[in-house]
Amino acid sequence: MAKFQAPKGVSEYVPDRSNYFEYVRSTLIESARNSGYQLIELPVFEDTELFTRGVGESTDVVRKEMYTFEDRGGRSITLRPEGTAGVMRAVIEHNLDRGQLPVKVFYSGAFFRAERPQAGRYRQFYQVGIEAIGLSDPLIDVEVIAVADRAFKALGLRKYHLEITSLGDLLTRENYLKDLRSYIEELPLDEETRTRASLNPLRLFDDKRSEIRELMQKAPVLMNYLTEESRADFESVKSLLKRLGIAFSVNERMVRGLDYYTGTAFEFVHSELGAQSGIGGGGRYDGLMEQLGGQNLSGIGFGLGIDRVLLACEAEGIAVPENEKLDLYIVPLGTGDESLIIAEELRSRGLRVDLAFGERALKGAMKAADKSGAKYSLVLGADELSSDVVSLKEMNSGESESVTLSSLATTLIEKISNLGEHS
Question: Which of 25, 28, 320, 380 has the most neighbouring CB atoms within 10 Å?
Fold first, then answer.
């Protein structure tokens, strides 16, 4: 019988690497929570038109990469390729924009793009994202960037850099696109590329082909067309980032991969990830809500790639902190029932506890305790149960001390607290 395997291009995580994945995801989410963002849980599939209208027909995402199918009712459905359009749909549908503004939400989960798999680029990938919807304000732009930067620093990342730009307002883009289209008309482009440029000429800046990159080197730069208001907003963003100590560089030719971006746009890149160096990015999207049938409200957000952030952590040699490991590993010697009861009592006190199952010999069970990475271990046999005393062993030092079973939970909590203070 053929052996089943995960579909090609799917990122999946099994122990022990799944512990690393969860640590990265929870750290990214914690930074959002600390800034007042609340969870929004969304479907992994939506009406296809939500993405064609919201993401943009000229993007590679819509033209080449969406997983689209027809359901039993004849409706065209697409697995979500990104998060913002779905968030905006939910905000409109549930009237969240009719309350206090800005609406500040975060999400996490799997996303899907039918593209050629490579390191850091998957057909199923994972993101943590935030959106702040309802106000256009440089202060919010900077807060969104700071949430990501603080998360990366909390993980211990050092070899990343922030690139920012401004994509301007409506008047900026009208004036700029007029000159850009004139420039592109004179270029020797193939028919498919010219068709793509007719939908959105900015897409040519994002083209990976060396010949197109060379042709676009002398193209007009959008930032030279910024209106006075757009320029003032961008100067405020830069000033606030400097005051917060967030290093950045201005990338005048940055083009985000989705059509809805306006105003402030940004990307975090990591020096150790090769071609797929982006670990997260985002920007402002004036007009998207109205385009999807809602009010004319502005918004800004980001998507951070959990897969790529994890690869960046591994590249920098960042380990999962000790407090993510087990607190205690119990080795039963013919006392499986009692060991499980004790384990459950300790777990109810918030301790992470595992135990050896099955009729293992002591030597094998102690090897399992070593491999578990637990901070402490104990052996529970008939003698320990009758005396109500166990020998609690600290795994790093090998030192042991006698502890009564009745005081085990309190002793462990105190010891682990002390370990945290001195780590």
Answer: 28
Q: Residue 389: is it exposed, middle or buried by C-beta count within 10 angstroms (0-12/13-18/19+)?
A: middle
Query: What pTM was computed for the model?
Result: 0.89
Domains by residue range for the chain, with CATH: 17-169+227-315 (3.30.930.10), 322-422 (3.40.50.800)
Provide the token pair at 238: 């830069």
Whether the CB-CB separation of 126 and 24 falls below 8 Å is answered with: no
> CB of 113 within 8 A of CB of 66?
yes
- Strand residue runs (E) in 207-361: 248-250, 262-270, 278-284, 299-305, 328-332, 353-355
Residue type, 39: L
The per-residue pLDDT for range 121-170, each reduced to its tens digit, is: 899 999 999 999 999 999 999 999 999 999 999 999 999 999 999 999 98
Residue 400: CA count within 13 A, CB half-sphere: 9
Q: Report how far residue 184's alpha carbon sits from residue 37's, in angstroms, rounded to the nearest whole number.
A: 42
Among 324, 325, 356, smallest CA distance to 340 is for: 356
172 Cβ contact list (under 8 Å, min separation 6): 222, 225, 226, 227, 230
Is residue 153 within 8 Å of 146, Cβ to Cβ?
A: no
pLDDT digits over 322-354, tens only?
667 899 999 999 999 999 999 999 999 999 999
